[in-house]
């Protein structure tokens, strides 16, 4: 099924870190915000990293990332995909992140999941020349036992670039 990215990037002029996923999941597209599947561990992981409660509202999550100089977006503008399965992605049109980079203070880019990392390096890195750091996926599709500690250890790297 052809899917168009339907979420605006979240960033402002103070954003220092850009976190890129592949493309919003079915639940995220339905709910209108990033990492919205109730079993996705992205927001719980950030709560642990920053030792701060974020809550479940879009406004609260937006405020949280902006207060911590984090920007959110995705690598893919449109693609063919079955449900939310990254492994089924085909016919990719990448997002243009140059405006975000120009209008912010982005120092580093992180990608959530192997597919986002691979696609970033293939489609966006050649244009931006900004290397990305791979972070494990927080998707409920990737939930081996004990992953929470591994996620926390990987994601706490973000805090090094966002501490005020």
Describe this entry's structure for a reader.
The longest helix has 16 residues, at 147-162. The protein has helices spanning 26-31, 42-50, 58-67, 98-102, 114-128, 147-162, and strands at 2-4, 17-21, 70-74, 76-80, 90-94, 108-112, 132-135. The N and C termini lie far apart (43 Å). The mean pLDDT is 90. Helix 2 packs across helix 6 (147-162). It is an alpha/beta fold. It has six helices and seven strands. The protein has a single domain (2-156), classed as Uracil-DNA Glycosylase, subunit E (3-Layer(aba) Sandwich), CATH 3.40.470.
Spatial strand order of the main sheet: 3-2-6-7
Structural class: alpha/beta
- Estimate the global geometry from the Cα principal axes: globular
Task: Kindly estimate the percentage of residues that lie in beta strands according to DSSP.
Answer: 15-25%
The domain count comes to 1
Q: Please state the second-level CATH architecture.
A: 3-Layer(aba) Sandwich
Q: Could you give the topology of this structure?
A:
Layout: E1 2-4, E2 17-21, H1 26-31, H2 42-50, H3 58-67, E3 70-74, E4 76-80, E5 90-94, H4 98-102, E6 108-112, H5 114-128, E7 132-135, H6 147-162
Parallel strand pairs: 2-3, 2-6, 6-7
Antiparallel strand pairs: 1-4, 4-5
Name a few traits of the molecule.
6 helices, 164 residues, 37% helix, Uracil-DNA Glycosylase, subunit E, three-stranded antiparallel sheet, alpha/beta
